[in-house]
Amino acid sequence: MPPDVSPNATDEALIAAVQAGDTGAFRYLVERYESVVAATVIGMLGPGPQADDVGQETMIRLYRSLDQFEGAARLKTYVTRIAINVSIDALRARKRRQNRLQSRDAERPPDEPVGHANRTVERREQKRLVQQAVRQLDTPYRAVVVLRLLDGYSTQETADILEIPYGTVLSRLHRAKKRLADRLRPLLDADRP
Amino acid sequence: MKNRHRYLIEQALDDTLSSNEREELDRLLRDHPHLQRHLHEEQAVHTLMSQSAPDAFEDGFAERTMSRLNRELMTAEEHAPASGSASPTVWGELTAGMELLLRRFGAVPASAVLALALYNVYAGPPLEATSTTLVERLFGLPPIAVELLLAL
Fold first, then answer.
1. From what superkingdom does this record's organism come (chain B) (predicted)?
2. Is B69 at the interface with chain A, CB within 8 A?
3. Comparing B100 with A138, which gets the higher pLDDT?
4. CA angle centred on A154, ends A150 and A155, rounded to 5°
5. For residue B13, with 0-12 CB atoms within 10 Å meaning exposed, 13-18 middle and 19 or more buried, which class applies?
6. Cβ of A80: how many Cβ atoms within 10 Å?
7. Total of domains in chain B
8. Which CATH architecture is the domain A1-107 placed in?
């Protein structure tokens, strides 16, 4: 019996269809996991055309690696692992490019304090400041923060996705949160009763 | 801070403490008041972060992805028989890299064209699927091509 190929089909059925040569079935997987990939990629790189490119690249790598997908891991975890790796590669490339060409599209100036933020900061501005603070973290810390705090993976899942020990996630999280707290002090203080 | 303390605080923030761990954390917080402040601060960071999840991609992401995938698959098919020892995947990736450059810079830098040409002549091993981004691959592989380009 041919696998069920519809937007509501299970991951397994869609993967089987793609493996059988039905490229169209892959579209349902793209739609299903678009938000997962966006959360990781935009969290790592910030919004913009590069994030879109990296998102597409993530999906294409997923397509190419579906043959090797064993099904032991959840597809969500699997695609997140690809997204984080492609994002890290893109950050490395961006850094190399900046070093080499002193590109005008430099990521952002160092440590812009958020000292003027106060209770009246709108939600959107708060979000921007938080995401900016995340992007000021070094890549290993940023990856842990994006997965654990923005994407909502557990500490163990974060360790599994990044293929690092649980204790390393804990210590990176601890340091990252300390840095975030320092940078976002005005926002944290503003929320304090 | 000890790893055990970090672990307990993280579990508390995740709301996944067992009853034994809960007792252990309560004891710890009683004996070390500074950890209480630390826990509150971490809670505040968690709350702030949970309110700041990144936005979605712009509309049409699935269309863009599928169209790029189909283009790559088609290009790989078209180029594979005539491309000497480079694999279809390599050709698809290199072509996609060119398209990426075109989209981002409005032109393909001459060095990238040369790198592609040299790669073709040189026909190195297939590019690693998990190495670097497409653009970086064009500039980065093969090393001999980069050396030659730099020498030009």
1. Bacteria
2. yes
3. A138
4. 105
5. buried
6. 28
7. 2
8. Orthogonal Bundle (1.10)
Do B89 and B138 share a domain, yes or no?
yes
Q: B72 lies in which domain range?
A: 61-151
Tell me whether 0.85 is exceeded by the ipTM: no
Query: Do residue A65 and residue B129 have CB atoms under 8 angstroms apart?
Result: yes
Side-chain-side CA neighbours of A126 within 13 Å: the count stands at 21
End-to-end Cα, chain B, rounded Å: 55
The domain made up of A111-193 has a fold known as Arc Repressor Mutant, subunit A (1.10.10)
The pLDDT value recorded for residue B152 is: 43
Which of A116-120, A174-178, B123-127 has the weakest average pLDDT? B123-127
Confidence band, pLDDT 50/70/90 cuts, at residue B12: confident
Query: Which span out of A65-79, A134-148, B7-21, B27-41 was modeled with the highest average pLDDT?
Result: A134-148
Identify all chain B residues contacting A192, using CB atoms and an 8 Å cutoff.
44
Who contacts A27 (Cβ-Cβ below 8 Å, separation ≥6)? B62, B66
